[in-house]
Amino acid sequence: VVTFDGVLHTPFPKDLKKMLDLLEEGLGEPVDVEFAHDGDALYMLQCRALAQSAAAQRVTIPSGVSAEDTVFTASRYVQMGQVTNLEWIVLVDPRDYERLESKERMLRVAKAVGALNRTLPEKRFLLMGPGRWGSRGDIRLGVPVTYSDICHTAMLIEVARQKGSYVPDVSFGTHFFQDLVESRILYLPLYPDDRDVVWNEAILNDSPNRLAEHAREWADLEDVVRLVHVPSVAPGRLLHVVMDGEEDRALAWVGPAR
Hints:
Elements: H1 5-8, H2 12-27, E1 31-37, E2 42-49, E3 70-74, E4 81-86, E5 88-92, H3 94-97, H4 103-119, E6 125-130, E7 155-159, H5 177-182, E8 186-190, H6 201-204, H7 211-214, E9 225-229, H8 230-233, E10 238-244, E11 249-255
Parallel strand pairs: 5-6, 6-7, 7-8
Antiparallel strand pairs: 1-2, 3-11, 4-10, 5-9, 10-11
């Protein structure tokens, strides 16, 4: 059995701690490293920021938001963070996605999302879809996008819709975790069928779909890919999302620019 017992009785632990401390001091936040050790020397292969210190500050969820202005709420696995003044919502509802009859159509959904990612203004839209963005095995579990198809969003949301007594798992953004951290893209899982949460069908599912205007080539997917222009649905207002990890609550609502 191979163990690290021998390594732990060498200077390696102190060397690694010194490396991590220096990197954290230089970058201003904890880091994740990949390293190699040949028995004599320690080599750092890769270093990435591990935390979103600015986004992780607690923001109080506003009270008094009306039911009509509430877009969605969440009460499971909520992190800290907020995004404000979003103009667009891109939604692939899991119920529509799972009804697609072929792999080719699912791949087209991924390409449509990528087209919107290139077209919409950076960090001005929210991306919502089935519970495993970036799925590569069974693509029925999630839209098989690559990071370059989602990199301009302000927030990635994985939606789990209940099927009878079963709720599909989400991936918690793990397909793109470090990319999301480095790009300051927030992540949230949503469970719209939970008894204590809000999912505003009028805004998310029944608003005019602007897909054909911004991605004409993918207009045949209007029954699956929805593009909602928030100021058109709520004149003079934009979308805001606040996540309070301490209370395990999140709120998305439409309101004046902040």
